[in-house]
Amino acid sequence: MMEKKIDELLKKNHLSVTGGRKKILELFLQQEGALSHSDIERKAGEKFDRVTVYRTLQVFLEKGLIHSIPTSDNSIRYALCKEDCSGGHHHDDHVHFICNTCGNTVCLEGVSIPAIRLPRGYSADQVEMLVSGVCKSCNI
Amino acid sequence: MMEKKIDELLKKNHLSVTGGRKKILELFLQQEGALSHSDIERKAGEKFDRVTVYRTLQVFLEKGLIHSIPTSDNSIRYALCKEDCSGGHHHDDHVHFICNTCGNTVCLEGVSIPAIRLPRGYSADQVEMLVSGVCKSCNI
DNA sequence: GTAACTGCAAAATATTTGCATCCTT
DNA sequence: AAGGATGCAAATATTTTGCAGTTAC
């Protein structure tokens, strides 16, 4: 049951289990894709405060439950991390896809980011790859 | 002379040559790297209005004079486009590098984004690659 | 019982819009 | 002269902070 999974996820990350956190985590689990702050507010209905959403996302981010996906429109998306990246230690080597038709953002778990050769003097820490286009569901 | 170059750039893109636009374009030309909205405000001093900066960046973006670089911190950076991407038709196939030490963002013109294979059903339109780490100047 | 989480109020920031005026062409 | 660009004022929207009340452990 999802309820169980949610509780486990929170406990595993040393977070107390509260209504707001459960609700937000549930949204992420239901949705196969990324959510922006405003997506969450909208989907959660009038359930809880804006501020709680900010704080919850921040804590989830710190604990490594979710990761953020950069965008060009000043509205960062967040997506659930997979098992192996809890504790702030991310294994974010997958590609993010943004659909221009439906607006959804998804993590392409199967597609990994190819290595690149940087100019002399540069050292890489993290690499993000962002593809926009038309997704599977819209591409008919 | 830079003055000339600035005028030409504006004219080439069918924009009238005004003080604000010249100033902002000058900032981009001086700086080898990307600028955020607030960078521009800061560097321009008290020269002109916030609103002018918003509108100018928007126009430059539409005309293809600059391109935007996504970030994870709700502060989009903008960088000058090279010759061949005016008219909203971008040739943005280079990698962007964000230095965690000095905070600068630069376009690695020499490094091009490797092709990737998307899952069946997805079609790509644009690809962004964002590397963070330590840049040449800070890596000593 | 205690520490942590939440909601509310309010402050601080950031972005957008309308309009009158000024500047470029 | 005409159209577009700018500055100012103000409306909106977004994010942060402090604090008091509530809840999880």
What would your notes on this structure say?
- 2 copies of one chain form a homodimer.
- Chain A contains 4 helices and 6 strands.
- Chain A is of the alpha+beta class.
- Chain A has a single domain, classed as Orthogonal Bundle (Arc Repressor Mutant, subunit A).
- In chain A, the strands form 2 sheets. Chain A has a 3-stranded antiparallel β-sheet.
- Chain A is globular and about 50 Å long.
- The model of chain A has no long low-confidence stretch (mean pLDDT 89).
- Chain A binds a DNA duplex (25 and 25 nucleotides) through residues 16-21, 37-38, 48-52, 54-56, 59, 74.
Task: Compose a concise summary of this entry.
Chain A has 140 residues and is an alpha+beta fold.
Main attributes of the structure:
homodimer, 140 residues, alpha+beta, Arc Repressor Mutant, subunit A, three-stranded antiparallel sheet, three-stranded mixed sheet, 6 strands, 31% helix, globular
Q: Mind sketching the topology for me?
A:
The structure is a homodimer of 140-residue chains.
Chain A: H1 2-12, H2 19-30, E1 35-36, H3 37-43, H4 50-63, E2 66-69, E3 77-80, E4 94-99, E5 105-112, E6 123-134
Helix pairs in contact in A: 1-2
Chain A binds a DNA duplex (25 and 25 nucleotides) through α2 and α4.
CATH homologous superfamily label of chain A: Winged helix-like DNA-binding domain superfamily/Winged helix DNA-binding domain
Residue-averaged pLDDT of chain A: 89
Q: Largest sheet of chain A at a glance?
A: 3 strands, antiparallel
Please identify the oligomeric state.
Answer: homodimer
Overall CATH class of chain A: Mainly Alpha
Broad shape of chain A: globular
Q: How many distinct helices of chain A?
A: 4
Low-confidence stretches of chain A: none
